[in-house]
Amino acid sequence: MRQSQSFIPTLREVPADAEVKSHQLLLRAGFIRQSASGVYTFLPLGQRVLQKVEAIIREEMNRAGAIELLMPALQPAELWQQSGRWYSYGPELMRLKDRHERDFALGPTHEEMITVLVRDEVKTYKRLPLTLYQIQVKFRDEKRPRFGLLRGREFIMKDAYSFHTSQESLDETYKKMYEAYSNIFRRCGLNFRAVIADSGAIGGKDTHEFMVLSDIGEDTIAYSDASDYAANIEMAPVITTYEKSDEPLRDLEKVHTPGQKTIEQVASYLQVTPEKCIKSLLFKVDDRYVLVLVRGDHEANDVKVKNLFDASIVELATPEETKQVMNCEIGSLGPIGVGEAVTVVADHAVKAIVNGVCGANEEGYHYIGVNPERDFTVAQYADLRFIQEGDPSPDGKGTIRFARGIEVGHVFKLGTKYSEAMNAVYLDENGRSQTMIMGCYGIGVSRLVAAIAEQFADENGLVWPAAVAPFDVHLISVNAKNDEQRQLADEWYEKLGQAGLEVLYDDRPERAGVKFADSDLIGIPIRVTVGKRASEGIVEVKVRQTGETMEVSVNELIDTIRRLLQ
């Protein structure tokens, strides 16, 4: 492609609203442009990278036995109502009506649609297992789109769905998809980890997220410093054991704590450590209220609360709900004297507290000398807190460390969540009706492009891995007015293309400095510069990733480029 005839609008300045490296560079290098908040156009260079990534995904999915199809983005509300997600998915689901006032959703995912499709077309065990996938635009009405392609309202996703007659069959496909995902991210050159995860609004059990390691990642990965254990922080179990102190039990006493609301304020005011305090949080768990107790130096984990109650929706009660249910402000909550309308559960660490501190359910007052079971009753003790750095690793090997990650893929064992709700059944060998067992596997394709850009960049611009770069070679004619340079560059533009190499040819009448700066910004793996030694048939070859340069005879140019790309 001749750069003079292309559409690569590079920018010299960093856009003011671009917070992270990938967003800044993809804008500056002319790969994307924002159309609206969280909505982007892929310009020609961005589209080429996207196509390279999609090609890798297709190769690995096809190798794993999946079959590609394409489903509509516009989905009838009835499908979502059948599964129950029309009501539970939340405000991220983009809903609209047609001219006849019929409800539709712009699909954030396609579990409902694929389940109905297979339900209506597959009637017998002989056609199972079956894995279908698509690469398609998805929509989520993010409250706060940010970081460019990393969190948008319109994005490109590869989603796959598998259907089975047995758990063993699902396990086998799950393993294939796990391996396919690992191959995809490895081929993209990424530093990633597969971590144990929560299924969120998708549902199901036994899920893994694939995280690209990055300081700007929105997810925290808890990993062992002595094994390959890794989990999303919300899913990592705590195996710490707690010992009660043998200090004598004190009498329960209500004390005045004016203006002290946070654990830090209360602990300082009463001259105790946060470990002595009981933190009380009121959650709304589906249609019930639950008071969750954790130690003052710990944080309550809402995902673990959700899983404890097998709930669909878990959220902190609002100040208004807290006042109505507990008759006090949030900063004064405690478990003593709680009525039967509220279920009290506690993290294991709370059980070991002796002579602790908790809110008195009265503004400006706390209890001291608090002892669980003597002073209040707990319906159930469970692991309800977030794991912390330094905790023992759940696999018993080493201790926990934290890293940040960008989620680029997620694999789920859905089980029968959707097939039961939508009556997706088949006839088994004995002619009996059985419910299909399902799996679900997603990759954020456009997010993957941003994650690669985040990991592969330097102070001068993008540094694309060869497998996903928009072109193999950036050919530059230093002086377009010099006949020898122009003729040699024109000749080798044709020859490199004939050799099967993808070439971006900068034939613009620009200064050399502008061309070199744009080349570094765009980040094509190999740069070939036709300059002052053109008359000798000598060109300069530069490797973008290492900065290594060499002078090469044009007779050896193709072999040199292929060697460097490999």
UniProtKB/TrEMBL annotation:
It catalyses: tRNA(Pro) + L-proline + ATP = L-prolyl-tRNA(Pro) + AMP + diphosphate. Keywords: Aminoacyl-tRNA synthetase, ATP-binding, Cytoplasm, Ligase, Nucleotide-binding, Protein biosynthesis. Transmembrane segments: none annotated. It comes from the Bacteria. The keyword NAD does not apply. One of its GO terms (cellular component) is cytosol. Catalyzes the attachment of proline to tRNA(Pro) in a two-step reaction: proline is first activated by ATP to form Pro-AMP and then transferred to the acceptor end of tRNA(Pro). As ProRS can inadvertently accommodate and process non-cognate amino acids such as alanine and cysteine, to avoid such errors it has two additional distinct editing activities against alanine. One activity is designated as 'pretransfer' editing and involves the tRNA(Pro)-independent hydrolysis of activated Ala-AMP. Belongs to the class-II aminoacyl-tRNA synthetase family. ProS type 1 subfamily. This is Proline--tRNA ligase. It comes from Parageobacillus caldoxylosilyticus NBRC 107762.
